[in-house]
Amino acid sequence: MAEKNGAVPPPNLNGISRPGRGSVVVKPKNMKGTLRRLWQLTKGTRKGLGWILLLSAFASGASVLSPYMTGRAVTAISGGDGVAWILLLLAGIYFCDWLVKFLQAFFMAAIGQRMIHYIRKTLFDRMKMLPLSFFDRKRHGELMSRLTNDVDNISTTISNSMTLLLTYGFTVTGIFIMMVALSPLLTTVSLCGVLAIYFLTKTVTKHTRKLFAQQQKSLGALNGQVEESISGLTMIKAFGREEEMAHEFEEKNKELCQTSVRALIWSGYLMPLMNVINNLCYVAIAVFSGVLFVNGTISDIGLITSFLLYVRQFTRPFVEIANIYNNFQTAVAGAERVFEIMDEQPEPADREGALSLSHPRGNIEFCHVGFGYAPERQVLKDISLKIPAGTQVAIVGPTGSGKTTLIHLLTRFYDVTEGCILLDGQDLRDYRMQDLRAAFGVVLQDTALFAQSVRDNICYGHPQADMGQIRRAAETAGADSFIGRLPEGYGTVLERGGLELSQGERQLITIARAVLADAPILILDEATSSVDTVTEQKIRRAMLEICKNRTSFIIAHRLSTIRDSDCIIFIGDGKIAEKGSHEELMAGNGRYARMYRTQTGEMPEPEEKPQGM
Length: 613
Known about the structure:
Largest sheet: 6 strands, mixed
Number of strands: 10
Structural class: alpha/beta
Number of helices: 21
Shape: elongated
């Protein structure tokens, strides 16, 4: 995790180190393996990468050749020779340097984005194949971060860091070769400065790693507090907790400030001290080479000029390479997080010879069904139930009893762990998944609308529907009247995914969507949970209409909406506690009857007995 690893961040233009994009460096667990896999994944999208490698070698040419040519110019001037040709050659080198770097950026932009486009597409395609259980385990914000931030880190590394790393690598190698060729003795002396910079960086990194990790942790806590404060602002104001909210924010903000100051002070030591070492090394080389020149060991003043210029350029790439390498590690760690998603088990594939389901009748049978989200905690236990086609079934029970889980098994969002569910006499797992899902029209408890027009949201499951069909579906669901009052009616775009509508209006649109889908099996999961009494009655009448000649499952806490159901099933403790029509269950005077009378005010809610009685 980002909170556990850190390193010295790249320096800014003012010479003060700071964390890149406000985050610490995350070290990959297996860099070689991840790079190898990333290389294999992008096979077929790397066309032109060889040219990038060649251009990177050429891009280092100006840094390697210009100091040598400058030294030749000094030698020519000291000898009284003409230098015009040398100056022209230098101008040509710098022009070629600009052209090579332009071509490098031009080609890398296309290659890098093509590779990232493929990685992002592959990841998204993989995510849509994952089962619902995966999304239940993972926070949505974290998944979005992997799809955007982690892939963006990979993109930045491929497009920028990789080319710079190659260029600096060639530059350091070329400069070192030229320095050795000019003077092995002066090269040995200059390496002392490189060693000093290495130990300085190692010492500073030891302190900043912990500080930047703490900074990231404090930043995460502050962001979490800000998100909670904004999303819960209505509740905060209702309970008069503004002062406490501000105090908590100030504490976390102060902690982040103090940690950031310490981290930046420590990292701020690096560049000034590095400049001091560079300058001292430069002075030492200048003095030493001057002594050698006076003693006659070195007779070419141009050689000294070239070497001093090389010394200036030799240490600078090391710092940049270190920073680029840090970014490279973060990108590889991001690639590992991407591969974690790609390695998740997808939804079970259709069995070999899977059956098509073009005209389901709707006969459903639960045969000793058991299920648990975790092996040690069973949610449903030995559920056995026969539901003839066209039956309207209501599923009721206390919160957490397993009502919605039963529906998730029916639609194969999850597969049973015990027993089986039959549709028209065949195990659900024997059908093609696409055909099975198309057999259900679903209205879930949590409304899901998209940033599209009302019309597009209603016909989401039936995109070929014409306007007449859409309007009739909305009328059946009782949504046509309020849709007509919207600024552009059915063409009104829900900019915020429906948040501009009331919860009840959003629910009516999702019901209209299920009506238009015209599926033979209908599921209404708490469809009336967020509407007023008048709207509830409208939905109830609509439910009676749309459930005709369909096998339908209705989950409801408001028992008044399911009185007319053919069969009411009361789930308690993961089992079928009671089953029958409304009249039968009321006559039985069991748990359903007590719950119904409590809701309708016919009897007070029974008090809970103290523990131990």
